[in-house]
Design a protein that fits this description.
Layout lengths: L1 E4 L4 E4 L7 E5 L10 H19 L4 E7 L4 H10 L3 H18 L7 E4 L4 H13 L3 E3 L3 E4 L15 H5 L16 E6 L15 E3 L1 H12 L4 E7 L3 H16 L5 E7 L2 E3 L2 E2 L10 H7 L2 H9 L7 E2 L2 H21 L10 H19 L4 H16 L6 H18 L10 H15 L3 H13 L2 E6 L2 E6 L6
Parallel strand pairs: 3-4, 3-10, 4-5, 10-11, 12-14
Antiparallel strand pairs: 1-2, 6-7, 7-8, 8-9, 12-13, 15-16
Helix pairs in contact: 1-9, 2-3, 4-6, 6-7, 9-10, 11-12, 11-13, 14-15
GO molecular function: ATP binding; cysteine-tRNA ligase activity; metal ion binding
Family: Belongs to the class-I aminoacyl-tRNA synthetase family.
EC number: 6.1.1.16
């Protein structure tokens, strides 16, 4: 399998060995509910891990939870609750939503608050090595000492320097130096004792501490949204490689593109986001996963209503075909042509995902397979079962459940009534019943097997 490494800007091969592949993905800062921009990242990495495991790669997937942050403290103060208790509730909410999105591949979630002792130890080591220094406000990383800072994001620090107008801590040696430890007053909500006084960690050091505890200071894959490249991931590299004295910190860096809304990055700070909770009140989780995976993970994805409608139509088309297969009851062995089509489909599906997780092409291969099968006449029960299994296996890797519900009795009665009207050629009344059925979120297809009904449960309500 080949994946695009953001640092080298080229494809790198993942070699299958007996060793466990270690994947760290930057999780949420839990001050608000997950929005669909976040979901894009987490759905992609869930799909990546599902695929790797289906190909018998051994992989350990760890995700951090930032439960110490200024935004969390500010939100908790507004709500007049303890920040740590607020973070616990928000973390629970995040995991619940992830489960609803069928994100099930994460092996371990780790809270930043659980690694304070490691953070303090790392800061001590960085000071001893000359990479960090103390000021009256905290401890900072000395960016100028790490000569590779900016390589991942391609940033020219000197060009950026002129754009900085506000200096938050005049005791800092350089505007780009970032906080490893923030000193706080004893009465502040979240603080821990340290050699530099009471305080709390900076954002970047939290992930480096978690990495060292569970994976060490060198491992395989690190992922997150493209907005984390600078400064967060740059800072992680600087910290880890300064601590270990070794390169690379991570073999492959993976970044998902922005999800944009009205030509702006969807973000909490811009208040132009749609929460996953709100989305799921209207639509099935399959719809969001399909939207995300219909686009290349590295490209920007422009959010609009037509994306939703197109995805529902595509999902309904696949589902209708699966329902159609259940009507095939003839006896006999599996057609050789069908075996060949299944083998070809499985090969294409795997090949597309091996090519830097080309999910748009992967989804297209499902429809190509369905079109090929529809051209084959006299499909028997065994063949239909094999076809369904191939499609189900592919959907499972994509995390799409495609649940098929039983048709309610009132809908069956309408179908029977419509069939009688069609027999007596009263097509006007038959069409009215079709519209009545479709208004109840059902798709009706007239086939050589008779009328086939598919519930459009991709829309809620």
């Amino acid at each position: 399998m080949f994946l695009h490494d953001s640092l080298s800007n080229r494809l790198k091969k993942i070699i299958k060995t007996k060793k466990v592949i270690k994947l760290f993905v930057c999780g949420p800062t839990v001050y608000d509910s997950m929005h669909i921009g976040h979901a894009r990242t987490y759905i992609f990495f869930d799909t990546l891990v599902r695929f790797l495991r289906s190909q018998n790669y051994k992989i350990e997937y760890l995700q951090n939870i930032t439960d110490i942050d200024d935004k969390i403290i500010e939100r908790a103060q507004k709500l007049k609750i303890n920040p740590l208790k607020f973070a616990v509730a928000q973390t629970k909410d995040y995991k619940t939503i992830s489960k609803k999105l069928n994100i099930i591949s994460v092996d371990k979630y780790v809270n930043a608050s659980s690694v304070i002792s490691i953070i303090i130890n790392q800061i001590k080591r960085l000071i001893d090595k000359g990479y960090a220094y103390e000021t009256k406000n905290g401890v900072y990383f000395r960016v100028r000492k790490f000569k590779f800072y900016g390589e991942l994001s391609g940033q020219d620090l000197e060009a950026l320097r002129s754009g900085y107008r506000i200096e938050l801590d005049k005791a800092k040696e350089d505007v780009f130096d970032f906080a490893l430890w923030k000193k706080t007053k004893d009465n502040q909500a979240i603080s821990w004792p340290s050699p530099w006084g009471s305080g709390r960690p900076g954002w970047h050091i939290e992930d480096t501490a978690i990495s060292e505890k569970y994976f060490g200071l060198q491992y395989d894959l690190h992922g997150g949204g493209v907005d984390l490249k600078f400064p967060h991931h740059e800072a992680e590299i600087a910290q880890a490689e300064s601590l270990s004295g070794k390169k690379p910190f991570v073999k492959i860096w993976l970044h998902t593109g922005f999800l944009t809304f009205n030509n702006e990055k969807m973000s909490k700070s811009l208040k132009n986001f749609i929460t996953v909770k709100d989305f799921l009140t209207k639509y099935n989780a399959d719809v969001l996963r399909f939207i995300v995976l219909s686009s290349s993970y590295r490209s920007s994805l422009s959010w609009n209503e037509s994306l939703i409608n197109q995805s529902i139509a595509s999902l309904l088309s696949i589902k209708s075909f699966l329902v159609y297969l259940k009507y095939k009851n003839d006896k006999g062995d599996i057609n050789k042509k069908i075996i060949s089509s299944i083998n070809s489909f499985n090969k294409n599906f795997t090949s597309n995902l091996n090519d830097d997780m080309n999910t748009p092409k992967t989804i297209a291969s499902i429809f190509e397979f369905i079109n090929n099968i529809e051209s084959i006449k006299n499909i028997n029960k065994k063949s239909a079962k094999a076809i369904e299994e191939a499609i189900r296996n592919s959907l499972n890797i994509l995390g799409i459940k495609m649940k098929i519900n039983r048709v309610p009795k009132n809908i069956k009665d309408l179908i029977d009534k419509r069939e009688v009207l069609r027999i007596v050629k009263d097509f006007n009344k038959a069409d009215k019943i079709r519209k009545e059925i479709e208004a109840l979120n059902f798709r009706l297809d007239d086939t050589d097997q008779g009328p086939i009904l598919t519930h459009n449960n991709f829309i809620n309500g």
